[in-house]
């Protein structure tokens, strides 16, 4: 079991390193490398648009890898997704700037970002199911959380690598320094594949393998027979991903554009990812005792209460203000993400669990994290630089997520083999 959890964690960390490295670079690097002919505000918006393309592609990746994960096996899907991610990330590190090849650079950047989105769309669901379908019943929430732990761990690695690169003089950093963390992906992926190839296939999938082969296309079953569960799972998932988009992308761009030292910002972002990792583990443990829904509800309520304080801290545009905002914000995100993996897995039967849980999580990613930075930038611009409108909209979205968590059924005591 330790080897399985280590594989789930390491695979998730490597994939999210690649995916979240792009998110940080979209705030600090890409506006000046690929959109340097635009004004700073428009360049940031355009860069966030390429970021959103990867999030939009994540549900597609969830559907594609979910299909093969539910029909052929979890392990095969995981290995393939990791290879695609490593290749796409390495190519981004080799991509010429707009000043060298013109608009083709932006087109290629978007294509590679979409491939990243498709790859990570298959990673989370497979890593989570390998863990939860091996775990004993009373520890499913804790086991499933190891796939989610890949996000803060990957963020720590990505932010740390990019932070080290920012120590270079500005010209060298924008010319070649930012590329080094992207090129490191090929090394990390090689290590991840070595570990992942040794992990056994999910025992629950083996038990239901013949049934899976007889079923129709899994994504069709999810949309036609489990649409309510899909909707509720997606809306609940959006809650923690809006925090990610606000704290780890939009706020980073905002404070750096308002004069805060980018190395200090990245260091604080690393601390925030560490806080999220800790709260994720704690909340996952608690959800195995109290249930998924009570912990989810507590986390969403905490996010609603902290929304305006976080925005006010970001608006100060100081290292201390940003640090408190992002560390507390992503700590709250960890409270939600801890039980989320088990909550989503327990919504669907084994034969479509990969597809169903992946579509929930990746759909939430597209709507929550993918468009949040763009929406935040647009709302602040519409309000003339004020944050009142942004805070009101954010709390409204979280209120809808809270309602979905209240409506959803509790799955802690369910037998995974008996879910229909």
From TrEMBL:
<dbReference type="InterPro" id="IPR005829">
    <property type="entry name" value="Sugar_transporter_CS"/>
</dbReference>
<feature type="transmembrane region" description="Helical">
    <location>
        <begin position="142"/>
        <end position="164"/>
    </location>
</feature>
<dbReference type="Pfam" id="PF07690">
    <property type="entry name" value="MFS_1"/>
</dbReference>
<feature type="transmembrane region" description="Helical">
    <location>
        <begin position="359"/>
        <end position="380"/>
    </location>
</feature>
<dbReference type="InterPro" id="IPR011701">
    <property type="entry name" value="MFS"/>
</dbReference>
<keyword id="KW-1003">Cell membrane</keyword>
<feature type="transmembrane region" description="Helical">
    <location>
        <begin position="295"/>
        <end position="314"/>
    </location>
</feature>
<feature type="transmembrane region" description="Helical">
    <location>
        <begin position="176"/>
        <end position="197"/>
    </location>
</feature>
<dbReference type="GO" id="GO:0022857">
    <property type="term" value="F:transmembrane transporter activity"/>
</dbReference>
<keyword id="KW-0812">Transmembrane</keyword>
<feature type="transmembrane region" description="Helical">
    <location>
        <begin position="386"/>
        <end position="408"/>
    </location>
</feature>
<protein>
    <submittedName>
        <fullName>MFS transporter</fullName>
    </submittedName>
</protein>
<keyword id="KW-0472">Membrane</keyword>
<keyword id="KW-0813">Transport</keyword>
<dbReference type="InterPro" id="IPR036259">
    <property type="entry name" value="MFS_trans_sf"/>
</dbReference>
<feature type="transmembrane region" description="Helical">
    <location>
        <begin position="264"/>
        <end position="283"/>
    </location>
</feature>
<feature type="transmembrane region" description="Helical">
    <location>
        <begin position="230"/>
        <end position="252"/>
    </location>
</feature>
<feature type="domain" description="Major facilitator superfamily (MFS) profile">
    <location>
        <begin position="4"/>
        <end position="416"/>
    </location>
</feature>
<dbReference type="InterPro" id="IPR020846">
    <property type="entry name" value="MFS_dom"/>
</dbReference>
<feature type="transmembrane region" description="Helical">
    <location>
        <begin position="42"/>
        <end position="65"/>
    </location>
</feature>
<feature type="transmembrane region" description="Helical">
    <location>
        <begin position="320"/>
        <end position="347"/>
    </location>
</feature>
<feature type="transmembrane region" description="Helical">
    <location>
        <begin position="101"/>
        <end position="121"/>
    </location>
</feature>
<dbReference type="GO" id="GO:0005886">
    <property type="term" value="C:plasma membrane"/>
</dbReference>
<feature type="transmembrane region" description="Helical">
    <location>
        <begin position="77"/>
        <end position="95"/>
    </location>
</feature>
<feature type="transmembrane region" description="Helical">
    <location>
        <begin position="12"/>
        <end position="30"/>
    </location>
</feature>
<keyword id="KW-1133">Transmembrane helix</keyword>
């Amino acid at each position: 079991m330790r080897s399985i959890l280590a594989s789930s964690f390491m695979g998730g960390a490597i994939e999210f390193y690649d995916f979240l490295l792009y998110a940080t670079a979209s705030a600090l690097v890409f506006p000046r490398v690929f959109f340097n002919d635009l004004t700073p505000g428009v360049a940031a918006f355009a860069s966030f648009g390429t970021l959103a393309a990867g999030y939009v592609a994540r549900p597609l990746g969830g559907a594609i890898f979910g299909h093969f994960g539910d029909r052929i096996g979890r392990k095969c899907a995981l290995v393939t997704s990791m290879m695609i991610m490593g290749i796409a990330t390495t190519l981004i590190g080799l991509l010429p700037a707009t000043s060298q090849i013109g608009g083709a650079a932006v087109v290629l950047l978007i294509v590679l970002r979409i491939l990243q989105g498709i790859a990570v769309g298959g990673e989370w669901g497979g890593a989570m199911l390998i863990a939860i379908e091996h775990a004993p019943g009373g520890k499913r929430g804790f086991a499933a959380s190891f796939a989610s732990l890949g996000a803060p761990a990957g963020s720590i690695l990505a932010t740390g690598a990019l932070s080290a690169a920012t120590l270079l003089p500005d010209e060298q950093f924008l010319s070649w320094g930012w590329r080094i963390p992207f090129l490191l992906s090929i090394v990390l992926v090689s290590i991840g594949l070595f570990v992942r190839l040794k992990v056994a296939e999910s025992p629950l999938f083996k038990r239901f393998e013949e049934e899976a082969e007889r079923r129709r296309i899994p994504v069709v079953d999810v949309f036609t027979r489990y649409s309510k569960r899909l909707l509720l799972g997606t809306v609940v998932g959006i809650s923690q991903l809006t925090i990610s988009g606000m704290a780890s992308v939009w706020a980073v761009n905002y404070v750096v554009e308002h004069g805060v030292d980018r190395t200090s910002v990245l260091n604080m972002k690393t601390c925030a990812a560490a806080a999220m990792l800790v709260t994720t583990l704690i909340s996952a443990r608690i959800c195995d005792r109290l249930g998924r829904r009570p912990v989810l509800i507590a986390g969403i309520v905490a996010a609603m209460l902290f929304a305006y304080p976080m925005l006010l801290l970001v608006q100060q545009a100081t290292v201390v203000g940003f640090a408190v905002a992002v560390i507390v914000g992503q700590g709250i995100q960890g409270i939600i993400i801890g039980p989320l993996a088990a909550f989503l897995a327990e919504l669907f039967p084994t034969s479509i669990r990969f597809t169903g849980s992946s579509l929930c999580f990746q759909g939430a990613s597209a709507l929550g994290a993918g468009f949040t930075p763009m929406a935040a930038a647009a709302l602040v611009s519409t309000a003339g630089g004020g944050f009142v409108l942004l805070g009101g909209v954010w709390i409204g979205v979280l209120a809808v997520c809270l309602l979905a968590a209240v409506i959803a059924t509790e799955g802690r005591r369910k037998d995974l083999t008996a879910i229909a």
